[in-house]
Each structure stands twice: as structure tokens, then as C-alpha cells.
Amino acid sequence: xxxxxxxxxxxxxxxxxxxxxxxxxxxxxxxxxxxxxxxxxxxxxxxxxxxxxxxxxxxxxxxxxxxxxxxxxxxxxxxxxxxxxxxxxxxxxxxxxxxxxxxxxxxxxxxxxxxxxxxxxxxxxxxxxxxxxxxxxxxxxxxxxxxxxxxxxxxxxxxxxxxxxxxxxxxxxxxxxxxxxxxxxxxxxxxxxxxxxxxxxxxxxxxxxxxxxxxxxxxxxxxxxxxxxxxxxxxxxxxxxxxxxxxxxxxxxxxxxxxxxxxxxxxxxxxxxxxxxxxxxxxxxxxxxxxxxxxxxxxxxxxxxxxxxxxxxxxxxxxxxxxxxxxxxxxxxxxxxxxxxxxxxxxxxxxxxxxxxxxxxxxxxxxxxxxxxxxxxxxxxxxxxxxx
Length: 388
Fold this sequence. Notes:
The protein is α/β, with parallel strands linked by helices. It contains 16 helices and eleven strands. The longest helix is centred in the first third of the chain and has 17 residues, at 77-93.
């Protein structure tokens, strides 16, 4: 047993979310659309891509196709179409049934010219490429989804479509309307799962009455894992290495890491490297000292991140590092730490930091938004080296 981070998490190392797993699988099985909300590094992609979709596909490996598309770095409609084309052809190429039937399945495709190149090394099934009738390497979203629809209607394949970091389409003119149109025109029950991590942008996409995706699909929110559940997860792995931790200290550690699973796992893994096989019970002072040591060892990484921001953005970040969270960014208490910046200037910097996920928010118990630095290690770096 170990703490996983910086990669997709397998089911054995995934903490809790049993209700979300079941709800997501049930929606997919019944051909319903789903949108999954939650901050970055809370396990959304692992949940759908590495756990639920694998379970769904395993029930009929020959005929079930998972088409996963990541929109994180797209900046234009051409790039979006390129990602869709690549993901569709890659998903089909992984199906042995496609090759065993001599590509007869692909003869029914419309407005697509499929070509296949055998693997020279023999370690794969080969490479499938899909081009337009004009021999262009990029297909339009309309052509891709029409052909998925066609293959499913002919009972040749069943598709599951996953669109990750979906909020990025907001910066591409007409992308929302185009995708909404092609999804709305699907005649078969192809489940589409949309994931996103920037809540303020997703709200504009799904909650504004005139937005193309208004009220689209079912919703599943991935939020904080219960303290006790994560404590059990931590204890199970600590015990394996001869380390113990009380619930009180575990809660302290989880809060230090903003209750972000990826960050908790990273810190716990570092604790084990320092304290394993010492029959040691971790105290709050140990958490503080080990975190301080981790930041010291990683200082060059965070200095580089810090250097990406201009002088005024750094001032705003340092101001945020002085608070556990901030409710009113233009309130007197927060602005008092930024007396040389105007309220308008602070608001503009705040929006930019929110858009690039340096800052994020959660809804507290009384329904208010509270903003903080997303990466708890960056926050600790600022407190350790930048706050006078």
C-alpha cells in the first residue's frame, strides 16, 4: 500500500466516493449524460477514466468503446476538432474486433476515409487514421459524432464519450453552440460525461438560461472527503510502514493541505520517507516540521512558479497567504494588506488568478464562497519565504 499522486489513481488506492461511483455508473449504463464538478486534484478524471469507464467497458470488451478527450490545452476550433479526431480514431484502434473483422465495420462510415498502417514492431494492433473525404487530417465535430451515432445504431459498437476540462471551450467562439448542437442531434443513447474544475466558468456554461448547455445532463459533485474516511485511508498506509497518527492530527494535516486528496497523499508520502519504521506517532509539530522541510527541499520549484507572476500579482498572492481563506476580496480587511493597489486593480488580478486556477473557492456551511490559494504547498512556500 502506498500514497498515489501525479498519476491516475487505481480503484484500490481511491479513497471513498462510493456513492459517486455508483451514481456515475448507473447514469452511464442507462445512456444518460452527466457533468462532474469538482476542484482540480480531487480525483474526477481517475474516477471516470480509470475506474467507472473501465468497469463499463469490461462488460463487453469487443463492442464497448471509451472515447476520452482532454480539452485542457485547446485554444481554437481547429485544435478542438483535432483532439476529437485523434481521440475517436485512437479509441477505435484499440478494439481487436475492428481488426478481426477486416475493417468491414468502417465501410459504413460517412464522410470519412479510414486508413490503417500495421505496426512495424508488432507490439500493437497498428495505427488507424481517419481523414475527411478531401483527405484532410481533421474531422469536424459534426462528422465525428454522426459516425459514432451511426455505428451505435447499427449495433456495431457502444460508445461512452468523456470530455475533460470542458470549461476550456468557453474561450473558443461558438464552440459551446457547436458541441451542444451535435450532442443534441444524437439519435442513439450515447452517454456523454463532462468534467470540469473551474467552477466559476462552469457556472456560466451550465447555469445561465441563455447558454447552450443550460440545464444539460445530470450533475455529480466531487467534494471534500469526510475527515474520518480519509483518516482511515491514511492510517491504513501509515500502519504498513510502522507510523501512527491520531484523528485529531490527521484532521490538522488534511486542513493544512486544503483537504485536496492529491496534496494530502503527497505530504503523507513524504512523511513516510522521513518517519517510516520508527514506530513513530505523528504529532502536529511533526506535520509542521516535515511540511517545512518539504518546502525547503522543493524551494526551487516554487521559486520558479512564483517568478511567473508580475509584481502586483505577487502582492495579491502574499496577501492571500496571510489568510486561511478570503470571503470578500474587495473587503477592507483584505485590501488593507494591498494599500498600494486600487480596488479595481486587485479585482482584475483576482479574476486572472481565478481563471488560471492559482486561486479557487469552496462553498462553506452557510452557502458563502471562500477563496484561497489552490496549491497548499505554494501557500506554505509564500508563508515560509515571502511573508516578512
